[in-house]
Specification:
- The protein is of the alpha/beta class and about 290 residues long.
- It is built from nine helices and eight strands.
- Helix 2 packs across helix 5.
Length: about 290
């Protein structure tokens, strides 16, 4: 799914952990090759592609009832959502795409060269150069895990108009997949890589997982934090439902391919939500 392993630490990070996390986040997707690799991860039939496909489906479904207006894609990455909206609802939205990585914004340029209703901005989600109440819809997809979460949520809520909609996604730290991936699988790969280094295995052939800076919170915590910044949570949807853990999921995806034709089967608000490796919260700014 998302590359790398989460930074260790509890609710409050120490200075060393904060510095390591900031460096890990800043180092990602800073050149065109890394951005291209992120785009390529959306293709194929593996678990990463399934995760991205499921997440995009859920976001798009929740935007169906939105009449349109000014939309901000905060932490837009290479513009996968932007391109999808241009292909399906170009006449409804004026889109602003914002990302801290210039390489990602360049990738959006390549993906939206034919669009006249898209503006691109290089900026951090934690300090955006937009006025208060600038957007009818704000989407933060796959970015909050890399931020100072309270600060990022304050910024996102600040730019939402009264009555406006906010859609935010988060990796689900309580899912069986994430618990095993972060607590067993990635640490095992890193341990194996250290052993291979001692045995003289060339660096290019070693196992491992870089520290990504990911820090995720559960849906109850995220909803509470949204309340604290003046937003009213209305809906929670879990996506990328899977009972499997890595690397078993990679083997299973070679045969289970119906998710591309039926992405609705990969999401749930009901009893199957415990299997979701990620979730989305829809919230609205009150009119008064």
């Amino acid at each position: 799914m998302e590359a790398g392993v989460p930074i260790p630490g509890g609710r409050r990070l120490g200075l060393a952990n904060r510095a390591a996390r900031s460096a890990a986040v800043a180092s990602q997707y800073q050149d065109a090759a890394e951005a291209a690799g992120y785009v390529a991860a959306h293709d194929g039939w593996g678990p990463t592609a399934r995760y991205f496909h499921s997440r995009l489906h859920v976001v798009q479904e929740l935007l169906k009832d939105c009449p349109g207006g000014d939309l901000l894609d905060a932490g837009c990455g290479p513009g996968m959502l932007v391109r999808r909206l241009l292909d399906t609802r170009a006449e409804k939205f004026h889109i602003t795409a914002c990302d801290r990585s210039p390489a990602m914004i360049e990738a959006v340029v390549d993906r939206t060269f034919d669009a006249t209703n898209v503006e691109l901005v290089v900026a951090s989600i934690e300090d955006m150069p937009f006025g208060d109440a600038s957007f009818d819809v704000v989407v933060a997809m796959g970015v909050l895990e890399y931020t100072d979460l309270p600060r990022a949520l304050r910024e996102l809520s600040r730019v939402v108009r009264p009555g406006g909609l906010m859609l935010v996604t988060m990796l689900n730290p309580a899912s069986p997949y994430r618990l095993f991936e972060w607590g067993v699988y990635w640490p095992a790969l890193r341990l194996l890589g250290r052993l291979e280094r001692r045995l003289g295995v060339p660096a290019a052939n070693r196992h491992g997982a870089r520290v990504s800076g990911i820090r995720a919170v559960g849906a109850k915590t995220l909803r509470r934090m949204l309340h604290q910044v003046g937003m009213q949570p209305e809906d929670v949807v879990y996506y990328d439902l899977t009972p499997l853990v890595p690397p078993l999921d990679r083997l299973a995806r070679r045969w289970a391919r119906q998710w591309r034709d039926h992405p609705e089967r990969t999401a749930s608000r009901g009893t199957r939500r415990w299997m979701g490796t990620g979730y989305l919260v829809a919230a609205r700014r009150p009119l008064v």
